[in-house]
Amino acid sequence: MNILLIKLSAIGDVVQTLPALEAIKGLYPESRITWVVEDAAAGILEDHPLIDKLLVSRRKSWMRMLTRPGAMLEGAGRIIGFFRELRRERYDIAVDFQGLLKSGIVIGLSRADRKIGFDRTRELSYLFLNERLPAYDIEKHALERYLDVARYLGAKSPDTGCALPLGDEMALMEGKLRTIRREGSRVIVINPVARWKTKLWPEENFAVLADRLIREKNATVVLSGSREDRQVAGRISRLMQEHAFDWAGETSLKQLAALAKLSDLFITTDTGPMHLAAAAGAKVLALFGPTAPWRTGPYGSSQKVIRTGIDCSPCFRRRCEKNVQCMRGIGVSDVLNAIELK
């Protein structure tokens, strides 16, 4: 049995597809599984014991090359090479978990007998399928929607948890934490950045929160984020009166998952690392505004969400004409009062 799974992006969505991977592998334990993913999220899946082959799409890079006359031929060659590699094998089952044109093209060009996905997905991507599940309920949590594919294939009561292989990363982050953790203190990670401006909490709020965590909760505070988030983390650090450890841009995705797992609490906006932390088994406290936690919140009964619940939330908008009151209305004290540490 040869199986192709297509979930290209984003980080949180890829993480939330992992329980479906485990359920499908449980149905077909002797199967060989190939996963197609974009480079931004590939680090999560590298060396995963259930994935036999990782086929990485560098779509954004290739498309940029096509716009530059000097790199156009090279970009076209890399795209052709990617699809040649995709079509090198024949698949018994291919699943499009993404439901977008970019994933529809991948499943459409694959040499798969059964091309499975949801009906009526965006950008007419369902037209590339030859086996369609009924259109999904948009109010259903994304993780459960992905598990519905495994249920369709025959999985009975699939587990909503998943394993993240973090052996080397755990040892590395344990060592790093030993060098900064004050004796008897709790490690609290703050992940302050999100890709939508409407998902952001004010930087000065994060600074005040971090100061109070250090003073009132005996916390060692670590600021996390990608290389692109360094400026935000730096500004928060400079606004603080106490000292936090700025590790933005210093961890891989798996190292961030290990850091979250080792922490006493992971405070975050609605973003990919939130799902990564939840999947790693961290205790997550998430701040939500324009999006719906029942659709895309951190999964699990031990996770907690703070939101104002004002009438216009969730609006699912990247721009706001009301000064983003759904996020600005969350006070530092609201976050502190929601924290339960053993």
Structure description:
- The mean pLDDT is 97.
- Helix content is 41%, strand content 18%.
- The strands form two sheets. A six-stranded parallel β-sheet has the order 3-2-1-4-5-6, with helices on both faces. The protein has a six-stranded parallel β-sheet with strand order 9-8-7-10-11-12, sandwiched between helices.
- It contains 14 helices and twelve strands.
- Helix 1 links the parallel strand 1 and strand 2 (32-38).
- The chain has two domains: 2-153, 3-Layer(aba) Sandwich (Rossmann fold); 167-338, 3-Layer(aba) Sandwich (Rossmann fold), CATH 3.40.50.
- It is of the alpha/beta class.
Low-pLDDT segments, ≥5 res: none
CATH class of the largest domain: Alpha Beta
Total helices: the number is 14
Counted up, domains total 2
Order of helices and strands: EHEHEHHEHEEHHEHEHEHEHEHEHH
Percent range of helical residues: 40-55%
Tell me the structural class: alpha/beta
Q: Name the strands of the widest sheet in spatial order.
A: 3-2-1-4-5-6
Tally of strands: 12
Distance between the termini: 47 Å
CATH architecture term of the largest domain = 3-Layer(aba) Sandwich
CATH topology name of the largest domain, in short, is Rossmann fold
What do we call the CATH homologous superfamily of the largest domain? Answer: Glycogen Phosphorylase B
Return Rg in Å.
21 Å
* Amount of beta strand: 15-25%
Shape: globular
